[in-house]
Amino acid sequence: MGIKDIYAAVLEFDSDQVVKLVKDEISRGTEIQVILNDGLISAMDEVGKRFSEGELFVPEMLLAAQAMKAGLDQLKPHMKQEDSSTKGTIVIGTVKGDLHDIGKNLVAMMMEGAGFEVIDLGIDVDTEKFIQAAEEHKADIICMSALLTTTMPEMKVVVDTLKERGLNYKTMVGGAPVSQEFADQIGADGYSPDAPSAVEKARLLISDK
After folding, report:
1. Where are the alpha helices (DSSP H) in 29-88?
2. Which of 27, 30, 65, 79 is an S-S bond match for 109, by CB 3.0 to 4.6 Å?
3. Residue 7, H or E segment
4. Cα–Cα distance between 67 and 15 in angstroms, integer?
5. Is 137 helix (H, G, I), strand (E, B) or coil?
6. Which of 122, 137, 146, 113 lies closest to 46 in space, CA to CA?
7. What pTM was computed for the model?
C-alpha cells in the first residue's frame, strides 16, 4: 500500500478506499505534499487526460473528482499545519440569474484537486459578490459559469466592472452556451469548454501574472 494505491483508487472512483489509504499515509508520516501531489493531483491530471482522449466522460469525471475530494478533506487539517502553499486562489460561481451548478461544481472540484485554493460562491452570484470574494481572499482568478444564454451577459457585467474599478483579477468563463468567441467579445482572460482544460487554462493564467 502506498501513494500509487491512492492514485489507483481515485481512478477507480473508490472514495472510501481513497479515505482509508490517505489516512494510512498520514499515520505513516508521509509528507502531506507528497500525498497531495503524487496521489491526488497526479490522478486528477490523468483523469483530465483520459477525458480529453475520449476514454472518460463527465459522469466518470465527477466520480473521480468526488473520490479526490474525499482524500483532500483528510489532508486539509494537516495542510494548514504545514502552511502548505497553494497553486493560486480561484473564486468560482454561477452568474446571477442562473441556478445550474453541475458543471461549475466539477470545475471547482478539479481545480481543488489540482492544488488551487477554491472559493465556491454557489449559484445566482452577482457582480458585487464575485468582487467582494476576490478582494477578501486575494484571488488570482474569478471563474464564472453560465448554462443559460440569457445569463451570459452577466459575465460581461463582471468583466466591465473590474475594468472600471481598475481591479486586476484574471477572469475565466465557461458553460454550455459560452464560446471562445464570446470570451473574446467581453474581454475575459480565459475560456474553457470543460473542467480539465479549465485547470490547464488557470495554470497558464497564473503563470503569466
Report:
1. 32-34, 42-52, 58-81
2. 65
3. helix 3-11
4. 4
5. coil
6. 113
7. 0.78
Rounded distance, CA 57 to CA 168, Å? Answer: 35
Find the range with the poorest average confidence among 5-9, 43-47, 82-86, 173-177. Answer: 82-86
Which of 50-54, 150-154, 165-169 is predicted with the least confidence, judged by mean pLDDT?
Answer: 50-54
3-state secondary structure at position 119: strand
Cα dihedral 9, 10, 14, 16 in deg (nearest 10): 90
Q: Report how far residue 102's alpha carbon sits from residue 104's, in angstroms, rounded to the nearest whole number.
A: 5
CA-to-CA distance for 119 and 107, rounded, in angstroms? 12
Residue 56 dihedral angles phi and psi, to the nearest 5°: -120, 155
- Cα angle vertex 195, ends 65, 137, to 5°? 85
For 12-30, what is each residue's pLDDT tens digit?
Answer: 999 999 999 999 999 999 9
Over the stretch 79-123, which tens digit does the pLDDT of each residue have?
754 445 568 999 999 999 999 888 899 899 889 888 899 999 999
